[in-house]
Design brief:
The protein has one helix and eleven strands. The protein is mainly β. This is SuB0782 undefined product 764400:764714 forward MW:11955.
Length: 134
């Protein structure tokens, strides 16, 4: 699947299925950005997402992200993740440092301080919070 958002950007979802099941699917947004910068950026997030289209919440609960030391989980929760979607894009995951209250499934949301970073042509998002748009 190839989605064109603008003439200079291409997105490709990369899908890996475990044990031929569809219950857990890893999807990473691919982004070909010729003007790379380091670190998270609100500008990159704004270039990827279309401000004129709504963003829908796909997750019904947060997924905790544990801290790892020596490639082993420590049990310490360092962040939370949830899945979202926008028309024309593959589903994407957003990381929150603090626990947030998720709205109902497919509710329209807005993010507080949404930022994105590109690492090895993969795009990762983080935000300070979110609110449901009514």
């Amino acid at each position: 699947m190839l989605v064109h958002l603008s003439p200079t950007h291409d997105f490709k979802p990369s899908r890996t299925l475990s044990n031929n099941t569809t219950t857990k699917e890893n999807t990473t947004m691919k982004f070909n950005n010729s003007r790379r910068s380091s670190g998270y950026s609100a500008t990159l997030a704004n270039n990827i997402l279309d401000a004129s289209k709504p963003i829908h919440c796909l997750s019904i609960e947060l997924e905790p992200q544990q801290k790892f030391e020596d490639k082993k989980p420590t049990g310490e929760i360092i962040a939370y993740k949830a899945w979202f979607t926008q028309s024309g894009l593959p589903p994407f995951e957003v990381k929150f440092l603090d626990s947030v209250k998720l709205p109902n499934y497919l509710a329209v949301v807005e993010f507080e301080n949404l930022q994105a970073v590109e690492v090895s042509y993969n795009v990762y998002f983080k935000a300070d919070g979110l609110k449901e748009v009514k």
